[in-house]
Amino acid sequence: MGLSEEIQQTKFTSEKQKALLNLIYTYNTLITEMNAFFKSHDITRQQFNVLRILRGQFPRPCSINVIKERMLDKMSDTSRIVKRLENKGLLSRTDCDSDRRAVEITISEKGLNLLSDTDKKVSGFEHLLGNLNESEAKELNLLLDKIRE
User: Fold this and answer.
1) pTM, whole model, 2 decimals?
2) Can you give the three-state secondary structure of 57-124, one letter per residue?
């Protein structure tokens, strides 16, 4: 079903306006499905993103600033997310020996296990783009990159 049918609007001021609304509507559709999945694992998308970043650094620790830079959701309160993950036992925080103001963050075994348990399903989110062939997905990536330039 097309955007016009989904939101029951037939007139747009331009194709660019329609494209923008289409992006927003599609984003919300994708996020809704992802949020439901992560909720079933008692984490948020942002918490999952932090865990993925930490797994990528493992076994080296990571700072809050590195996590912030690599987050997909730039509006997230990284310190609060890290604290919640620490409370769940999914990561550990230790004071940095070389800089007392800095904290080193490392994913825990429990955090690694959670990611391992969710990896197959998360990679399965590709089904959300199942109507696109590889060529169309590549073109979509180019267009999205172009929008952000």
Assistant:
1) 0.79
2) HCCCCECHHHHHHHCCCCCCCHHHHHHHHHHCCCEEEEECCCCCCCEEEEECHHHHHHHHHHHHHHHH
